[in-house]
Amino acid sequence: MHEQEDLKNAGLKVTLPRVKVLEVFRTADTRHLSAEDVYHRLAGQSADVGLATVYRVLTQLEEAGMLARNTFNAGKAVYELNEGRHHDHLICLGCGRTDEFTDPTIEKRQKAVAESFGYELRDHQMALYGYCPDCAAKRAED
Amino acid sequence: MHEQEDLKNAGLKVTLPRVKVLEVFRTADTRHLSAEDVYHRLAGQSADVGLATVYRVLTQLEEAGMLARNTFNAGKAVYELNEGRHHDHLICLGCGRTDEFTDPTIEKRQKAVAESFGYELRDHQMALYGYCPDCAAKRAED
DNA sequence: TTGGAGTTGAGAATTATTCTCGATGGCTCG
DNA sequence: CGAGCCATCGAGAATAATTCTCAACTCCAA
Question: Which nucleotide is nearest to A53 (CA to C1')?
Fold first, then answer.
């Protein structure tokens, strides 16, 4: 409901596409949405925002720190609302279910590793792939 | 020099493109090569292997466990010889330099996290991004 | 050496994303 | 409140990475 202020604070002009895209993320059933996903959800609700614009807006919102971009399996990028607290992902190879977690020990070690190589750490990406409880059970049956 | 046996052991027919692609990896100056990279190196040495074939062979060699695929920044995939010992990457945002490392503590924690969610862990990818010593120094000057 | 299954190469097709450009719409100033 | 400028938009073309299609070719076992 406060999309307008958020955009203004980020130094972005308040336009219909930007407000609508944010709205989609705030009301979506899933946390992770691709450009195509967002595009379809908007098309489904009279708001006719072009695909190119969706891509543009996603990039801008990411740069403004309001969204976080992830490229899991490769192929396509997905975005999620950036709520401040960083986290990593656990992804099911069977059904695509995605869980989020943070592990202080891992974060600490990452910093240590980077330091030991003399690097100035800026970012990282980590994803664990496996089978969720349901899919693991299903696979065990065969 | 033992490309032939390696291929045979993997159950792959010994063909010129497969041998050549492996050779490229074994004699390259860099560990990480994209399909395009491999293609150009082959073109540069009379061996005329089509780009589509390079892609096919890379996929096959990966499935056979002889190469490992990584999709760092997204965009394009790179491959490297799979020498058994798993490792993660540290990538310089300035010059693209790539270092490799393994951290038992992180591996252990990853397993623990997956378990705590009831997942059957199969694989993971992790990359740390930052500035290498050289690039960090250059950036500090400004 | 010969035949067939597996493999190749060239180019077309696909997928994800970005660019181009004329039209449109926020927003600042008067 | 209205005018105009500049940022933004939409559509479709363009790009980039990768995969598909299919006729021609090559390994290799017999």
Answer: D9
